[in-house]
């Protein structure tokens, strides 16, 4: 229940919720191969599971450019449309192929402020079964330092089971 996950969600509760969510997502997506449908479902189910998620969605690698992300399925206020590799938190995660955990977006060089209310974020690269980068998942919070290692682990697990 969403009401149980307020400001001070307990670490154990949060880890348990990620684990349940991983099973729920796998069950909803069983037999569905369309990548957009899978991304839209993950974004919706994540956004509706945690109160600290303010903007939740995918930036997809544009196959025509190779080094640019274009916005994909998301839940939240209007997001920017395109982000070059290396720009902001999403572009850094894509260029380095590494998760970025940012407790204070204002301290991150080149952070792109799509919505001024964002205070902290986590961005996780998404790989296909061959290890190719297909997207990044961007989760922003309107609370400072909202994400920790439990979020990173939970999100990485859900993305790898869904797209790899
Ligand atoms: N937070 C991102 C920009 C995308 S939006 O906030 C939706 C970044 O700095 O990469």
Task: Sum up the structure in keywords.
disordered N terminus; 164 residues; Beta-Lactamase; 34% helix; 4 helices; binds methionine sulfoxide; alpha+beta
Topology of helices and strands:
Elements: H1 11-28, H2 35-47, E1 55-61, E2 68-75, E3 82-84, H3 88-96, E4 100-102, E5 120-127, E6 133-141, H4 149-163
Antiparallel strand pairs: 1-2, 1-6, 2-3, 4-5, 5-6
The structure holds methionine sulfoxide.
Walk me through what this model shows.
The protein has 164 residues and is an alpha+beta fold. The chain has one domain: 2-Layer Sandwich (Beta-Lactamase), CATH 3.30.450.40. The chain is 34% helix and 23% strand. The protein contains four helices and six strands. The chain has helices at residues 11-28, 35-47, 88-96, 149-163; strands at residues 55-61, 68-75, 82-84, 100-102, 120-127, 133-141. A six-stranded antiparallel β-sheet has the order 3-2-1-6-5-4, sandwiched between helices. Strand 5 and strand 6 form a beta hairpin. Helix 1 (11-28) runs parallel beside helix 4. The protein is globular and about 35 Å long. The two termini are 29 Å apart. It binds methionine sulfoxide (SME). Residues 55, 79-80, 83, 88-90, 111-112, 114, 118, 121, 138, 140 line the site of methionine sulfoxide. Methionine sulfoxide binds at residues 55, 79-80, 83, 88-90, 111-112, 114, 118, 121, 138, 140.
Tell me the strand order in the biggest sheet: 3-2-1-6-5-4
CATH homology group: GAF domain
Overall morphology: globular
Distance between the termini: 29 Å
Q: Mean of residue pLDDT?
A: 94
Q: What pattern of helices and strands is seen along the backbone?
A: HHEEEHEEEH
- Classification by helices and strands: alpha+beta
Number of helices: 4
Pick out the low-confidence regions. 1-6
Ligand species: methionine sulfoxide
> What would the CATH topology be?
Beta-Lactamase
């Amino acid at each position: 229940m969403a009401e149980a996950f307020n400001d001070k969600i307990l670490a154990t509760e949060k880890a348990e919720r990620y684990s349940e969510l991983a099973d729920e997502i796998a069950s909803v997506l069983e037999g569905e191969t369309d990548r957009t449908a899978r991304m839209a479902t993950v974004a919706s189910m994540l956004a509706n599971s945690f109160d600290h998620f303010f903007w939740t969605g995918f930036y997809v690698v544009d196959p025509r450019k190779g080094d640019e992300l274009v916005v994909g399925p998301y839940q939240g206020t209007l997001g920017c449309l395109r982000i070059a590799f290396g720009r902001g938190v999403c572009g850094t995660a894509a260029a380095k192929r590494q998760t970025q955990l940012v407790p204070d977006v204002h301290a991150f060089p080149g952070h792109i402020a799509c919505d001024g209310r964002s205070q902290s974020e986590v961005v996780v690269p998404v790989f296909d079964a061959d290890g190719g980068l297909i997207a990044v998942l961007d989760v922003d919070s309107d609370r400072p330092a909202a994400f920790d290692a439990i979020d990173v682990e939970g999100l990485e697990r859900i993305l790898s089971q869904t797209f790899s």
